[in-house]
Design goal:
The protein is α/β, with parallel strands linked by helices. The chain has 20 helices and 13 strands. Helix 2 runs antiparallel to helix 3 and helix 3 packs antiparallel against helix 5. The longest helix is centred in the first third of the chain and has 112 residues. One of its GO terms (biological process) is thiamine biosynthetic process.
Length: about 625
């Protein structure tokens, strides 16, 4: 606002006040002049009444009337003037009030802006101070870690030297029993430094962003190299057991195994403990570290003990594997408090066996002091078929006996009508091949029943389907409405079939369910292997049933019977990992060698299902 404008407003304000003051003074003077208008009117009327009526009566009356009208007009004008003055006063008061309110608001806004500016400055100062303290603490931590690491490496070098000296007396025997006995021997100082370097490998600073979740220390993978990430044979490059590599050539590492290890890290975030012979050489360590970095793998967190001596035996490979298991057991005993706090279970963790089975050719064994039962009984869900390949291949290859396990595979027709899951619940079998619904059922029924545990899935994907004969004309699930379905009487089977029919646009409630009977198999099975297709569909006892096309579908094709198969996943029924291997929780707690059995049997044959029908 300019000075001239401000001066004009002040002059106008002064003039308004003067006019208001003059009007008030004028009104006060008029009120002091004498009787009011009403009094004048009354006087005039009185004089008019007292005046003689003769002659001038009409004139006096008219005069009085005029005087009354003039008095009334004067009174009205006076009232209007008073109202106008009051309105002026009200408007003036409102204007002053608005000006005062505006001044207060401007003052409050100014104070608020000052407070906000001060708060911003305070926050910035505190943030800067926190960053400074964090940087200082980080520097101090790095310095302390470096000092601690140097001390640990030094102590480890001394301990490794002592261990290497103790092993020197048995070098010849160890070389004879080694997987790589014809290669150079280690240097004690170099090996000691190597072990210390291996233990410090995980502390060499952060790796590049690997895209992996933080390490989950409640899960452990004991990782080997030879026979897992690369072939288990000597001569690929210069390496020896307890030895040192001069020319580490990592070109023979399996790409698929490295990808599988990456997959394990992505899915489990497990802590990796290196138990390979490579942990004894810094040269091999560096080569292995390069392989890990190249394939975006998280470096190992620790290594197993090197204090266990190799015991001579008739089977060198068995002796070598036995020492490996003892090294792992020693690591677990050493970290017993840690494993208990992180709920790491098992005398020989399944993670070790599973990693070897997934990554390469597992050399499975049983530690001599591991408590084991005389026999492991597996109750199969049906007549032996392609779903059981892994069990029979392991048995034919002698893997069970090599691992010190006695395994009996019990066919379904030898179970006296008792389902495999109930055999495990009653402890007449250790494992049961059963649908995943059985695991759910035992976990959600009567509290007095054991909660059976699904320890493995036998197949990598869905291998079952609902089938009909092509000759029936039922070429889609929707057409099963009003038709007969031969049911295994599973708790969830009938609802699943009804849902599939509904998802295809049919009336799922109209499916006619009826149970299978052993009598039907014996009378009508012309295909063998307990074929429901032959005993029920082919004989007209039912219109549809649930089968595994990889074996029962193959039997039907061989018998000249063509099928329509409807895969559940094609009709929005998710795969439920079926069949699974069930075990009793008390048996698992005993640790009777079931980890080794799983590695040998489950998934030994992953060839997948044979397409025996047209979808």
């Amino acid at each position: 606002m300019s000075e001239a404008t401000k001066a004009l407003e002040e002059e106008a304000e002064k003039k308004r006040k003067e006019e208001l003051k003059a009007a008030r003074e004028k009104r006060n003077k008029e009120l002091k002049r004498g009787p009011g208008v009403a009094a004048l009117v009354q006087g005039a009327l009185k004089r008019a009444q007292e005046a003689p009526s003769m002659g001038k009566k009409d004139e006096l009356v008219e005069k009085a009337q005029r005087q009354r009208e003039e008095a009334e007009a004067a009174a009205k004008k006076e009232l209007e003037k008073q109202e106008h003055e009051k309105e002026l006063e009200r408007q003036e008061a409102e204007r002053q009030k608005r000006e005062e309110q505006k001044k207060v608001e401007e003052e409050n806004r100014r104070k608020l802006e000052e407070l906000q500016a001060k708060e911003r400055e305070r926050v910035q100062r505190e943030a800067a101070e926190r960053r400074r303290q964090a940087e200082k603490a980080d520097e101090e931590m790095k310095k302390k870690e470096a000092e601690t690491r140097d001390q640990r490496v030094k102590a480890s070098v001394e301990a490794a030297k002592k261990q290497q000296a103790d092993r020197a007396a048995a070098k010849a025997a160890k070389e004879a029993e080694s997987l790589y006995g014809d290669m150079p021997q280690p240097d004690a100082d170099s090996a000691a430094a190597s072990e210390a370097a291996m233990r410090a490998a995980g502390e060499r600073g952060p790796q590049a962003d690997l895209g992996l979740a933080p390490e989950d220390r409640s899960k452990i993978v004991f990782l080997d190299v030879d026979g897992v990430l690369r072939p288990a044979r000597a001569g690929t490059f210069d390496i020896s057991t307890d030895g040192e590599a001069a020319k580490p050539d990592t070109s023979d590492f399996f790409p698929a195994a490295l990808k599988a290890l990456r997959h394990i890290m992505e899915r489990s975030s497990a802590k990796v403990v290196l138990c390979a012979e490579w942990r004894r050489s810094e040269v091999l360590l560096k080569a292995l570290e390069d392989i890990f970095n190249k394939n975006r793998l998280r470096l190992w967190s620790d290594i197993t003990s090197q204090e266990v001596k190799l015991e001579k035996g008739s089977d060198p490979l068995r002796s070598f594997a036995d020492r490996r298991s003892k090294e792992i057991s020693a690591w677990l005993r050493k970290h017993e408090a840690w494993t208990a706090s992180h709920r790491v279970k098992g005398a020989l963790p399944l993670a070790f066996w599973a990693s070897n089975r997934v990554l390469g050719n597992c050399q499975c064994f049983a530690e001599s002091n591991l408590p084991m039962e005389d026999e492991i009984i597996v109750a199969l869900d049906w007549t032996p078929n392609t779903n059981h390949n892994g069990f029979y291949l392991a048995q034919m290859a002698g893997l069970y006996s090599t691992a010190g396990l006695k395994v009996t595979l019990r066919s379904a027709d030898a179970g006296d009508g008792t389902t495999p899951a109930r055999q495990v619940a009653q402890k007449t079998a250790h494992f049961a091949v059963a649908p995943s619904e059985s695991a759910i059922s035992f976990a959600t029924t009567e509290p007095d029943k054991p909660r059976l545990v699904a320890v493995a899935a036998l197949l990598q994907g869905s291998a079952s389907a609902i089938c009909t004969l092509k000759s029936s004309g039922i070429d889609r699930p929707a057409k099963l409405a009003g038709k007969r379905y031969a049911s295994y009487n599973g708790r969830f089977e009938d609802p699943i079939v009804s849902r599939m029919v509904s998802n295809d646009g049919g009336d799922g409630a109209a499916v006619q369910f009826h149970g299978l009977t052993a009598h039907g198999y014996q009378e009508g099975d012309t295909m063998g292997a307990g074929s429901v297709v032959a005993s029920y569909l082919e004989k007209g006892r039912s219109d549809s049933t649930w089968i595994f096309p990889a074996w029962e579908g193959v039997l039907a094709e061989r018998a000249g019977q063509h099928l329509h198969c409807f895969a559940l996943e094609d009709y929005n029924i998710p795969y439920g990992y079926s069949p699974v291997l069930l075990a009793h929780p008390e048996d698992l707690a005993l640790g009777f060698g079931w980890e080794c059995f799983l590695v040998l049997a489950v998934g030994a044959d992953r060839s997948g299902k044979t397409e025996a029908c047209t979808r």
